[in-house]
Write a structure and sequence with these properties.
The chain has 344 residues and is of the alpha/beta class. The chain folds into 2 domains: 198 residues, Alpha-Beta Complex (Quinone Oxidoreductase, Chain A, domain 1); 127 residues, NAD(P)-binding Rossmann-like Domain (Rossmann fold, 3-Layer(aba) Sandwich), CATH 3.40.50. The protein is 31% helix and 25% strand. The relative contact order is 0.16.
Length: 344
Amino acid sequence: MKAGVYQGPGKLEVLEVERPEAGPGEALLEVLYCGVCGTDVKTFVRGHHMFPPPCVLGHEVVGRIVELRGAGPGVKVREGDVVAVAPYVPCYSCEMCRRGRHELCNAKGWIEGGFAEYLTIPATVLERGTFAVPEGMDPKAACLCEPMACCINAVTDTPVRMGDTSLVLGAGVMGLLMLEACKAAGAARVLVSEPDDARRAEAERRGALVVDPTAVSLNEWVAQVAGEAGPDQVFVCVGTAEAAMQGISLVGKGGSVNVFGGLPGGSILDVDARRIHYDEVVLTGSFGFTPEHFRTALGLMASGRLDVGDLITHVFSLDDATRAFETASSGQARKVLIAVGAHA
């Protein structure tokens, strides 16, 4: 079978590799589509400690189950089903899971990389993290379940309540998904700060109040639009310490700042401790998702409550995987998919 094999920064080769075989309790998945996510791009551009080369990247996977080998009673999918697959699931028994922090599980079960024509779904992922794509839903759109689940985790951990005012810093694809998650959670107003004209226009089309932070004072604009109370939440969907620190200055009293965009190790935030103490501002972050978030994302997307499929701007064949990564790295695309399988 073919697979896009990451060989180091800037190097991706489409090679013939051995087709995997499903073991007892596992499934063999024919991959149809796999999204190119921010972590894939970071790895392709500069490497990543979690993905030493050579390896197959890709974890936003949708495919067709071609073989089930003695699936357990908790498995709800069948051979022939088109499914969205969570890339990992919690063990539900480690210390983090016992505390209810399933996204921080210390013993997750994982799938292999999705930029390959076939992959095996381990028994734990098959039972807890594999969901049939509802009839009528575009399987390409189902690739967005994983990033959408991360946003649902964020608006759950940093609760968005009905009637709230939420501020999103950054309108890349994750910022736009966060905008939709805030709306779905009940925010009455979502403010978005984004310097790029096209991204800002897309956020405005989706109902946000938008601003170019390079053209006006962001603090003054937020104070004018959000009023004296200020935003209830700030979601920092930009991976810089400066953006996170700005979020702390923008949030209202009693509000929360969620550092959602990943920061490089060693990043230091210069925090005004007065805001933390006297204004009871909460500084937190959110990472990943749980199967419950993933299932919620799929259900909301299938029902039309979350209309995010049009964020996909480019679809490349597996043979064009390098061009797909280069396009995703350019900043000129919203969401890039790779059509992996012959039947995509």
